[in-house]
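Exercise 7. Predict the structure of PepSY domain-containing protein from candidate division WWE3 bacterium.
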Amino acid sequence: MDEVRTELAAKTLAKVFAVAEFGVTESAITIINTMPVTGAIIAKHSYSIELSVMHNNGTWKSHQLAVDVKSGNVTLIY
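Solution. The predicted structure, encoded as tokens:
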């Protein structure tokens, strides 16, 4: 059950980050893929999340985020 809550928290952090980073509404963001990071010391709390974002000019772009749920850090990969 903790894994489900941790993944949900990662998705929430990713959406909040994307809203702030790209200046779009939450409805303009679609989560395509969520994968736990394996082989890292912080693996229990880290996820790679791929998003599709409709930017304000009407174009869809894919972005990948690294999310560390434990620290609350989100990093834009591309």
